[in-house]
TrEMBL record:
The chain crosses the membrane at residues 32-49, 61-77, 84-104, 110-128, 140-157, 163-180. Keywords: Membrane, Transmembrane, Transmembrane helix. This is Uncharacterized protein. It comes from Fimbriimonas ginsengisoli.
Length: 230
């Protein structure tokens, strides 16, 4: 009797990064981490020079529409060169719209800056870990260091307990998502598709919806929740 998995298998493309030797996998991970981090720095710089935003809904809708569209294109061209080319070409636009959205959130008083601290420490881990890279170790060490940094900055800036708590939440949730998705996308990307992988780290926020649909379809196909008749 074959017992199916409770959740569907991860989406894979032929020749993906998980099939590479360990050193090449780590090199790919580092390039994607560096690319996303420097993109985040550029995003923050662009947001700082933007005029104050009174309406957060418009940039939110634009960003979600852009990422949703890129998700559709990735589904249509999955495993083909067109996906990587379109994704890489769209990266500057993604960063610009994300900067607009981030500026709107900052102007509403949300401590979105805290999200960058966790990634900064995660990148430092990637730099200094040598041959002993671990996604779990990266997340745990980066979370401890960044949480301490957020707490110190909160005390130094005399943030209210509510804002300090929000900052810790932004840091923790973003770092957890970033670490998990960076590990997950290795089976969907090939060597040379680092720019597309950076875009994946933005658009994969929609994966929770697509993954939910896949899980439901998997359950129906294998009748996992169906009570067997006697």
């Amino acid at each position: 009797m074959i017992v199916p998995n409770f959740t569907p298998d991860a989406i894979e493309v032929p020749g993906n990064v998980t099939e590479l030797p360990y050193r090449e996998r780590v090199a790919f991970i580092r390039r994607v981490a560096y690319g996303h981090f420097f993109g985040l720095v550029g995003l923050a710089g662009a947001a700082a020079f933007m005029s104050p935003q009174s309406d957060w809904r418009k940039p939110t809708l634009w960003l979600f529409a852009l990422l949703a569209g890129l998700n559709v294109l990735r589904t249509l061209f999955r495993g083909r060169r067109e996906d990587s080319v379109i994704s890489a070409a769209a990266l500057p636009l993604v960063l610009l719209i994300a900067a607009w959205w981030a500026r709107a959130l900052v102007d509403r008083g949300l401590p979105v800056w805290a999200a960058g601290l966790g990634e900064a420490f995660a990148v430092l881990y990637a730099i200094f870990c040598g041959r002993d890279f671990s996604f779990t170790g990266q997340f745990v060490l980066a979370w401890i260091a960044s949480s301490a940094a957020v707490a110190w900055l909160g005390l130094a800036a005399r943030l209210s307990p509510a804002v300090a708590g929000q900052a810790l939440a932004w840091n923790s949730v973003f770092l957890l998502y970033w670490s998990y998705d960076l590990a997950a996308l290795l089976s969907r990307r090939r060597k040379g598709e680092e720019a597309a992988a950076v875009v994946d780290l933005y658009r994969d926020v929609f994966n929770v919806f697509g993954w939910t649909v896949r899980v439901v379809q998997h359950w129906r196909q294998h009748k996992i929740w169906t009570v067997p008749s006697r």
